[in-house]
Design brief:
The chain is mostly helical. 69% of the residues lie in helices and 3% in strands. It has a two-stranded antiparallel sheet. Strand 1 (248-251) and strand 2 form a beta hairpin.
């Protein structure tokens, strides 16, 4: 009978893979224990703080450790952990949202092309954690590793980058450049509905090049944020800012939004 002779590199590789899977399994079990505890008892503030510190330490570890070919799996896990963290309103009332970037550090490090997470990145870090510069820096790292030919929705990262620059950092000219890139990448998308938005992005870029403080551009960006919001808080932030800039927002019976621009901008 033939016996396979294992090379040392193969043995090491199998061992490291086992370690990686063990880490993931441990975190799954830990999350399950926490979920069971949450449904069975009321946590103290100290317990919420302890759990928060443990979760963030896990994320920091994952961001630094090699994944041994399981990058996508690790990024998926980090995103699921983020959703659990973000949705635990009782815990967030105690610990806040300052640690949200830790989850996206993992995602950007392991799978920067995970474009579907960028709307959550922008909303959670900018709107909830109040760290727009961190959000833009993370998106910059992700965008540097993206290729719109392989990630059709990657243009969205440029759109959210532009919104953070324009609406939260007051960088109208930088936002114009980001909208230009969003238009260029959206133009490569096979979906005709996505390509139909290209003139809109280019129009915003042109407006901001002429006037980096354009109120119309800000209103239109907030409208886009409202329509694409991923949480009630981000929707409310968009509505408040549209109305602060002179617009009027109402919800129609079919669930769509009706926005009236200020009289002086019509």
């Amino acid at each position: 009978m033939n016996q396979k002779r294992w090379r040392w590199s193969e043995v090491v590789g199998l061992g490291l893979t086992a370690v990686a899977l063990g880490i993931v399994a441990f975190m799954q079990q830990d999350a399950l224990r926490r979920l069971q505890a949450q449904t069975g008892e009321q946590f103290t503030d100290a317990e919420y703080e302890r759990q928060n510190a443990q979760t963030i330490t896990q994320m920091q570890l994952l961001a630094k450790l090699p994944s041994f070919g399981f990058d996508n799996l690790v990024a998926d896990w980090a995103f699921l952990q983020f959703l659990q963290f973000f949705g635990d309103s009782a815990a967030r009332q105690v610990t806040g949202y300052d640690d949200v970037p830790a989850f996206f550090e993992v995602i950007i490090a392991k799978d920067p092309g995970f474009a579907q997470t960028y709307p959550y990145l922008s909303t959670a870090i900018t709107v909830y954690a109040g760290q727009p510069q961190t959000a833009v820096a993370l998106m910059d790292r992700g965008l540097a590793a993206m290729d719109p030919a392989y990630q059709p929705t990657a243009y969205l990262a440029w759109v959210f980058r532009a919104m953070d620059e324009l609406l939260f950092l007051g960088k109208g000219r930088a936002a114009a450049a980001s909208y230009d890139r969003a238009a260029a990448w959206a133009e490569l998308n096979p979906d005709p509905q996505v390509r139909a938005a290209v003139p809109y992005y280019r129009s915003l870029a042109q407006t901001l090049r002429r006037n980096p403080d354009s109120r119309m551009a800000q209103i239109n960006a907030w409208i886009w944020a409202l329509v694409n919001a991923v949480s009630d808080r981000s929707r409310q932030t968009a509505i408040e800012n549209i109305e602060r800039l002179g617009g009027k927002v109402s919800r129609l019976p079919d669930g769509t939004w009706q926005i009236r621009h200020p009289e002086d901008l019509r």
